[in-house]
Amino acid sequence: MKKIVFTLTLLLMSLSAALAQTWTFGAMSESDKALCAADANWVLGTDRYGYTLALENEALVANGSELAYAKGLKFTAGAPADKTEGKAKVRLNYGSSRLELNGNGVSLTIPSLKAGQKVTVSCSTGKTGTARGLDATNITPVSGSFNATSADQVTNVGTVTADGDVVLKTNGGGMNIYSIKVETVGGGSSDTPGSTDKITHAVARNSKVNQMYVTTKSGDVKYYNTADLTSVKFEGDKAIIAPKSGSENDEYNASVQKISFAKKVDQGESGDIDNPAGVIQITEAKGWQESAYLKWAPFEGASSYNVYVDDKKIDAQLVRQYASYYRADVLGLKEGTYSVKVVPVNAEGKEIAGANTASNLVVKSYNREGFAHFKYAGVGAYNNDGTLKAGAKVLYITAKTAKTVSTTVNTGKQETITGLQSIIDAYSKGKDKTPIAFRIIGKVNLSDLDHISSSAEGLQIKGAMMNMTFEGVGDDATVYGFGFLLREAESVEFRNFAIMRCLDDAMSLDTDNSHVWIHNMDLFYGKKGGAADQAKGDGTVDIKGDSKYVTVAYNRFWDNGKASMCGMKSETGENWITYHHNWFDHSDSRMARVRTMSVHMYNNYYQHNDVYGIGATSGSSIFMESNYFDAVKRPIMSSLQGTDAMGDGTFSGEKGGLIKAYGNVFANKPANFSYIPYAENNTSFDAYEVSNPSEQVPTSVKTLVGGTSYDNFDTNPSLMYAYAADKAEDVPSIVEGFYGAGRLNHGDIDFVIPDETVVTNGHQQPWPALASILDAYTSGVVKVFGESDGGTVNPTPDPTPDPTPGPDAPVIEGTVTCSFAADGTLSNTSFALTGEAKNVKKEETVIDGTTYTASLKMESKTEVSFTTSQKMTLYVYYGLSGTNTNVKVDGVKQTGAPTTVVLEAGAHKITKGESTTVALIKLVPVTE
What we know:
Layout: H1 2-19, E1 20-24, H2 30-37, E2 42-44, E3 49-51, E4 55-58, E5 61-62, E6 65-66, E7 74-77, E8 90-93, E9 98-101, E10 107-113, E11 118-125, E12 133-137, E13 139-143, E14 154-160, E15 164-171, E16 175-183, E17 211-216, E18 221-225, E19 229-235, E20 238-243, E21 250-253, E22 256-262, E23 272-273, E24 282-287, E25 291-296, E26 304-309, E27 312-313, E28 319-321, E29 326-331, E30 336-345, E31 356-363, E32 393-397, E33 405-410, E34 414-418, H3 420-427, E35 436-440, E36 443-445, E37 458-462, E38 465-472, E39 478-480, E40 483-487, E41 490-495, E42 498-500, E43 507-511, E44 514-519, E45 522-523, E46 541-543, E47 548-553, E48 556-558, E49 562-566, E50 577-580, E51 583-585, E52 589-595, E53 598-602, E54 605-607, E55 614-617, E56 621-625, E57 628-630, E58 636-638, E59 658-662, E60 665-667, E61 688-689, H4 731-735, E62 759-760, E63 763-764, H5 768-775, E64 783-784, E65 791-792, E66 811-812, E67 816-819, E68 832-833, E69 840-847, E70 850-858, E71 863-868, E72 872-878, E73 886-889, E74 892-895, E75 899-903, ...
Parallel strand pairs: 32-35, 33-65, 35-38, 36-39, 37-40, 38-41, 39-42, 40-43, 41-44, 42-45, 43-46, 44-47, 45-48, 47-50, 48-51, 49-52, 50-53, 51-54, 52-55, 53-56, 54-57, 55-58, 56-59, 57-60, 59-61, 66-71
Antiparallel strand pairs: 1-16, 2-3, 3-8, 4-7, 5-6, 7-10, 8-9, 9-16, 10-15, 11-14, 11-16, 12-15, 13-14, 17-18, 17-22, 19-20, 20-21, 23-31, 24-25, 25-29, 26-27, 26-30, 28-29, 28-64, 30-31, 33-34, 62-63, 67-77, 68-71, 69-70, 70-77, 71-76, 72-75, 72-77, 73-74, 73-76
């Protein structure tokens, strides 16, 4: 295997010369920096080096060596007026990821090109608002502004006119060059590319093994198992692939566009298990994402079992009996390595001999990239580290307890509320912001619920800061016959359960929701709709009515008809939505259909989608980055232009939206495949392709109908989150892997959707076999330990041991916040107003992008008390009217805006320093 990896690495190096040359002027290597630092002719400024001598068709050399940053290119420029970095004619600006040609008439030469080669240059004017350009010799312009000027960042595309050098010279002043790419588009052989290919060893795509992909110039993708190959080599423009079997080689005759590699799916790491005689026999144990689980065989003499994670007992409800085994899941774990012990318990409730432990269970964090977490500390009931928020409640929802589960809720007064929907309704009054996690076990039917507040959708979550998580326990949690409606709700999370046969939408984010995170869900067919095109259900995840800051990630859409509507016509802003690492498994359309909103879609897997993939309308802006399309005939469309304008159109009669595209892969193109980039048609196109993700779309690029431009939200650091996109080639193996899309272990439905489409009267139909599985679906859970017919289900303990709590409030762990309502209610019950003065002022204060509507008046008898379990940093943020920025913390006056104090574990009080108002209190663990 080592030999193959080495051979294929050499292949990648040779591909650069054989198929394409690319210069991306981003980070500068440490070796290049060292060469420049040792050469007096290179002067360092702020994250850029400038060359202080004249150049005459010369390579960029420092300390006697050609710099890798621009290796192979030649430059011509006069000597600068003085030897300062700012006056240098050629500057390597690694801080801003660009090559700077500083001045008029500075030229760059790409030597020894062939007629017909494609040259793509991403560039912008060196002076904001001033139109400048690049004059190109030996280039026939195709799109962009070669031999013209522009004040925008542009991508210039042209073809080489004749064999020889291509020279680019600045026109009107300095220019910034972000990337240059040279591609061979055919040529080099008397045969038509691909006409004499000999391909006998290609195999089907298989995410369970490492594979090599050969992408041809016609867009076809051929797959090879790397373990079956001896070597890959080039003879001129012919690619030769030699199999280990010794049989005849596969040959591609001038038809290879690129070769890439995809790693096999991650199967997860099993824990260490030792099963000597006389102890519980553990059959399976793994860590997953912020959870771990183990299974074991029945043990003689045991009536039940206690389970401990690192010696702390978990809730009894997390232990379940199945037909032939027992299982326990541990939730709310930080990333790390854990041991889980299972202990047999006899009929008298006493632990007996026979305990066994699974160790080295590796737990990973959920991927929290996306707009839901943008400048936001913990969506739902959990902190960003995966642990429950301070004081969080946990309620276990089963078919037996959904009607009878109860807890105390502040509705303006403390009330005991019974039933799942009733508890949610009580939270909707907005008085109680205590984080709450509803943990779903087994199958919960519509008929099991106390009631539903939305007759159209099912459970309704409405009207307040909810701090609410709905999560499945294990790999078989399912809600059946209903979905979820969100209206004016903030901080809601859904994870790790299935929705089957919902009433209308599985998830309807209907009106003005924010910071909603939907992830690791299995979304199946809904109830058949009234319209002919709703046989597979209507919308699966619909986001509309000015809902904003939403992330839809790592979900599996099972052959859905209409996967996701994103936006209506009533939105008032960009709204900012993220879809990433979703598996659109044979779904038909709307993945997503976007109106008005700004949407980032990256690393999604589109598999055999029959109608279309992404659709942009109504002035929306979409960044399509590194997605993988497998056998999708219309992958990317904008309304009334490009592919959608062909024939009678496909999906919309609305005005268009603009799509920026980078790094997407189109594999197994169907015969009727259509994708039209801007470089091929700069009037009626599907998407504007960029050479790197940081490149902006020029404002001059507009939709054909509607004339809207792209808003470049993704390159604005004040609007955009940090993320790390995976290579598109790796996306199938990632989403199909152990940490991929859908529930833990990909759930309990084992069905491979066929590639064929069932169509009746022009409309796609559910697969009968999958529909039958759903209609007959029952839970495999035989017994839930700790389950009761009614009463309060106590909050679960965090698996990390705590100090003893104080008497006034729950002990605080993890990052927490506390704000104030106009009626004096605190948003977090871990804090208490213990003084006589509890007065609140109604005023709006914006802190880190969040608006708080009231502030606590700090008066002589005002006290805020709380208890921490560890060393933490306290932040006190003052209200709009709080001109004095000081309080007393544990009797000592502290100042600052915000006031910042490091506290040891224990009980603490905030009291008045000078008269002021406090809008927000935050506690953050100290990492030492």
